[in-house]
């Protein structure tokens, strides 16, 4: 497919290990989803097997297939409705080219403000990735990508023809300059572009080498980035655990990494409590509990922070239709207390 000039857009960092069915169940995203959307925006149809053994097809070979629009219900349902056995995906033409620019800033808040300004200006980069100092230091030591030692770093990538790339990057660099960057480095070759991405792509593995960590996944409106980063810093101090921030900043999908030591009794519990506070903060500013990793077991008890009991009742009623005996992933997504009667029915 790639050799013929085509590609499938969603690019989770876990792509070497995960399967398309898992991506559909979790509505996965990735660095390039700012421009192309997440799995749900690139999925045309699925075949699923229901718990009574029947095989049904939803969607088709093109967008907006006939019938009820059930694809959105299946995508992101965390394996609770049926088993996906086939999928039809939207395959796109590869752009002529792509080029990243690396920006360093004196504070996370200034970097967050720069992201807001880029989005407000109406340019649509293919990716805007963010790292703060703890992540920059660890990634640089691990990947030797040539990152500047500053408080926050952005990688902004645009694509198109050379002319289109130049035009977009000129505007983006002009916006960045209004925030007094300590570094503004545009890749001049494929090699330099690869080096800029290398550190970011190694981030999770690099952090794992220095400590245990819990990776959060929540979303916020991009305009709230500066405030949320400041609050995460305050919460980190309050709970006594360091938090590294690396995330898809363009679409507000945050992945704060809370560092802790599993060998110190009580630290995991403190880490989980801090994680819950950060996710509640995401909801408080108008975001939600999950961007791409799902709710699963970890966040099921926080669902009532985002939804009313009636909201959850409506969502559980959908599961009743597809899986009346609640056999598929019964203990995921919904607070155990809310789903208790159904699970024991
Ligand atoms: C290091 C790391 C980086 C990650 N980076 C990203 C990222 O950038 N973006 C992102 O979105 N996610 C990321 N993830 C999370 C995760 O990898 C993705 O959500 C991925 O889509 C899960 O796919 P999987 O095939 O591994 O599914 P699994 O983990 O095996 O399963 C996930 C869920 O899907 C259900 N499921 C699996 N197969 C089916 C099926 N055939 N039918 C119905 N339900 C099914 C399972 O029951 C489970 O609830 C990351 C995870 C790790 C560990």
UniProtKB/TrEMBL annotation:
<dbReference type="GO" id="GO:0071949">
    <property type="term" value="F:FAD binding"/>
</dbReference>
<dbReference type="Pfam" id="PF01565">
    <property type="entry name" value="FAD_binding_4"/>
</dbReference>
<feature type="domain" description="FAD-binding PCMH-type">
    <location>
        <begin position="1"/>
        <end position="94"/>
    </location>
</feature>
<dbReference type="InterPro" id="IPR016171">
    <property type="entry name" value="Vanillyl_alc_oxidase_C-sub2"/>
</dbReference>
<dbReference type="InterPro" id="IPR016166">
    <property type="entry name" value="FAD-bd_PCMH"/>
</dbReference>
<keyword id="KW-0285">Flavoprotein</keyword>
<dbReference type="Pfam" id="PF02913">
    <property type="entry name" value="FAD-oxidase_C"/>
</dbReference>
<dbReference type="InterPro" id="IPR016164">
    <property type="entry name" value="FAD-linked_Oxase-like_C"/>
</dbReference>
<keyword id="KW-0560">Oxidoreductase</keyword>
<protein>
    <recommendedName>
        <fullName>FAD-binding PCMH-type domain-containing protein</fullName>
    </recommendedName>
</protein>
<dbReference type="InterPro" id="IPR004113">
    <property type="entry name" value="FAD-bd_oxidored_4_C"/>
</dbReference>
<dbReference type="InterPro" id="IPR036318">
    <property type="entry name" value="FAD-bd_PCMH-like_sf"/>
</dbReference>
<dbReference type="InterPro" id="IPR006094">
    <property type="entry name" value="Oxid_FAD_bind_N"/>
</dbReference>
<dbReference type="InterPro" id="IPR016169">
    <property type="entry name" value="FAD-bd_PCMH_sub2"/>
</dbReference>
<dbReference type="InterPro" id="IPR051914">
    <property type="entry name" value="FAD-linked_OxidoTrans_Type4"/>
</dbReference>
<keyword id="KW-0274">FAD</keyword>
<dbReference type="GO" id="GO:0016491">
    <property type="term" value="F:oxidoreductase activity"/>
</dbReference>
């Amino acid at each position: 497919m790639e050799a013929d000039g085509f590609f499938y857009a969603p690019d989770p960092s876990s792509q070497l290990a995960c399967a398309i069915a898992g991506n559909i169940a979790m509505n996965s995203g990735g660095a390039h989803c700012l421009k192309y959307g997440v799995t749900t925006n690139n999925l045309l149809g699925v075949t699923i097997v229901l718990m009574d053994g029947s095989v049904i097809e939803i969607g088709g070979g093109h967008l907006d297939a006939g019938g009820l629009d059930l694809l959105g219900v299946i995508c992101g349902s965390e394996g609770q409705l049926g088993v996906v056995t086939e999928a039809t995906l939207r395959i796109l033409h590869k752009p002529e080219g792509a080029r990243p620019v690396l920006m360093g800033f004196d504070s996370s808040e200034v970097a967050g403000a720069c992201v807001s300004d880029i989005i407000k200006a109406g340019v649509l980069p293919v990716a805007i990735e963010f790292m703060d100092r703890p992540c920059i230091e660890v990634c640089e030591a691990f990947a030797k990508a040539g990152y500047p030692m500053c408080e926050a770093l952005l990688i902004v990538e645009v694509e198109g023809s050379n002319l289109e790339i130049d035009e977009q990057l000129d505007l983006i660099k002009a916006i960045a300059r209004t925030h007094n960057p300590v570094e503004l480095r545009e890749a001049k070759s494929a090699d330099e572009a690869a080096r800029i991405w290398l550190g970011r792509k190694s981030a999770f593995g690099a952090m794992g080498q220095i400590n245990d960590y819990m990776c959060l996944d929540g979303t916020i409106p991009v305009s709230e980035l500066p405030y949320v980063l400041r609050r995460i810093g305050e919460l980190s101090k309050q709970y006594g655990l360091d938090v590294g921030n690396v995330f898809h900043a363009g679409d507000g999908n945050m992945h704060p990494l809370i560092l802790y030591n599993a060998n110190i009794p009580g630290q995991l519990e403190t880490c989980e409590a801090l994680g819950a506070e950060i996710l509640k903060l995401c909801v408080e500013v108008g975001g939600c509990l999950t961007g791409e990793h799902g709710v699963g077991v970890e966040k099921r008890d926080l669902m009532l922070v985002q939804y009313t009991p009636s909201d959850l009742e409506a969502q559980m009623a959908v599961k009743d239709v597809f899986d009346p005996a609640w056999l598929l992933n019964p203990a995921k997504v919904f607070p155990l207390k809310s789903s208790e009667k159904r699970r024991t029915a």
